[in-house]
Specification:
Blueprint: H1 3-13, H2 16-37, E1 48-51, E2 54-57, E3 77-79, E4 84-86, E5 142-150, H3 166-182, E6 190-198, H4 203-216, E7 220-223, H5 233-237, E8 242-244, H6 250-255, E9 260-262, H7 267-280, E10 292-298, H8 302-314, E11 322-327, H9 337-349, E12 352-358, H10 361-373, E13 379-382
Parallel strand pairs: 5-6, 5-7, 7-8, 8-9, 10-11, 10-12, 12-13
Antiparallel strand pairs: 1-2, 3-4
Helix pairs in contact: 2-3, 7-8, 9-10
Length: 383
């Protein structure tokens, strides 16, 4: 199996908690990419600094001083995002205050200032990655983000859909954030995360959390709302970037560009790859027992439903071989057990051999449980 297919398999089978870790890692990659692309005048090696008297270069200890005396070299720490020694107790250089920088280069006299931990010497040298920003949630010292934790309250609980508790999710996410900050943070700033617990099967809960996040003025949201498909629209409408666990449909991504993104694949392309991949492996052939196919689908996303049906036709499955087990988007996240039991009985008696699941894990669990109780064992496609 190629590395790409291994990666796709992980995306399809991993839990939302694992994807949250990957999301946090994505933040690091984006920060490092920005650091690499920003032109800089470094203070290191055989550096060239611009001072009042022009260019000067050389090696030795360089001290940058501003309106006040700089801190001593013994108290110099590391400026996050740059890999360079600096002041502020190893966290980041303070804008508008004097600091001491230990490194190669000729000492130049100037000021130390600017937002985002930016340091300049004689107005010409700025540390890599310490870019200015006026974005909401971004200060000179930190980047504030929100992380939405899945919390299926009451008797259901997260275990009903195979997810860890909100407390465990938070511990995992905080561990990643702490590691990022211990290695310098992002763009000379510390990540500060505010956690929100939301119950996606309770519209009032998600609406309240969405309003709280808007009022908090964060830079971005990680995780997003897990259900239904359009749940993250309220955040994108407020122009808050969302790196969600579930991917937006192509129409959502286009409507709210560039505010909606995900670590998960495009759902339409994901289903298409699954359908044509199984076609290539003979899943729709009599040799593998194929007779009829049923689509277990809710109407939470008509765009996905239509795309799956058309993909099946293009894969060679005729319309008279397809049955639709369709039902309304369940407000509780779980379809009625009696409806799922009826679908299973209907498919069993109708000699349906293959099931394509286009609904949430809660509804699919009800169907598969009912089928198992009846001794009915169809082949499932669960993207």
């Amino acid at each position: 199996m190629s590395q790409y297919l291994q990666f796709r398999n992980w995306l399809n089978t991993s839990s939302s908690a694992e994807k949250k870790l990957a999301t946090a890692a994505l933040v690091v990659v984006l920060g490092l990419t920005g650091w690499a692309l920003v032109p800089t005048g470094g203070v290191g090696g055989n550096s060239v600094a611009v001072g009042p008297n022009g260019l000067s270069a050389g090696s030795g200890q360089g001290t940058t001083s501003g309106g006040q005396a700089g801190a001593s070299a013994s108290s110099a720490g590391t400026v996050p995002g740059s890999g360079l020694p600096g002041s502020a107790s190893g966290s980041q250089a303070a804008g508008g205050a004097a600091g001491t920088t230990s490194g190669s280069g000729t000492a130049t006299s100037g000021t130390s200032g600017g937002s985002g931990g930016q340091t300049t010497a004689g107005g010409g040298v700025s540390l890599p990655g310490c870019v200015k920003s006026s974005e909401p949630g971004v200060s000179a010292t930190q980047i504030n983000v929100a992380d939405i934790l899945l919390n299926l309250g009451g008797a259901i609980g997260n275990s009903a859909v195979g997810q860890s508790s909100p407390q465990t999710q938070q511990q995992m996410a905080q561990a990643v954030v702490d590691d990022i900050n211990s290695h310098g943070g992002v763009a000379c700033r510390k990540l500060v995360v505010t956690f929100y617990q939301a119950n996606p099967i309770d519209p009032t809960s998600t609406q309240n959390i969405c309003l709280q996040i808007q009022q908090a003025g964060v830079f971005a949201v990680i995780g997003g709302f897990a259900y239904p498909e359009s749940a993250n629209d309220c955040l994108a409408q407020a122009k808050i970037p969302v790196i969600a666990n579930i991917a937006p449909t192509p129409s959502e991504a286009k409507q709210y560009y560039p505010y909606m993104m995900s670590v998960s694949p495009d759902p339409l392309q994901d289903y298409r790859n699954s359908i044509f991949g199984l076609k290539a492996r003979g899943w729709f052939t009599a040799a593998q027992g194929f007779q009829k196919l049923a689509i277990l689908e809710d109407d939470c996303s008509i765009e996905i439903d239509h795309a799956v049906y058309n993909d099946l036709l293009q894969a060679g499955v005729s319309a008279n071989q397809i049955t639709k087990n369709d039902f309304s988007c369940p407000s509780s996240g779980f379809a009625s057990p009696s409806d799922m039991s009826n679908f299973a009985t209907q498919d069993n008696l109708g000699h349906v051999t293959n099931i394509v699941e286009v609904t949430g894990g809660g509804s699919f669990k009800e169907f598969s449980t009912a089928a198992q109780q009846q001794g009915y064992k169809p082949h499932y496609l669960a993207s």
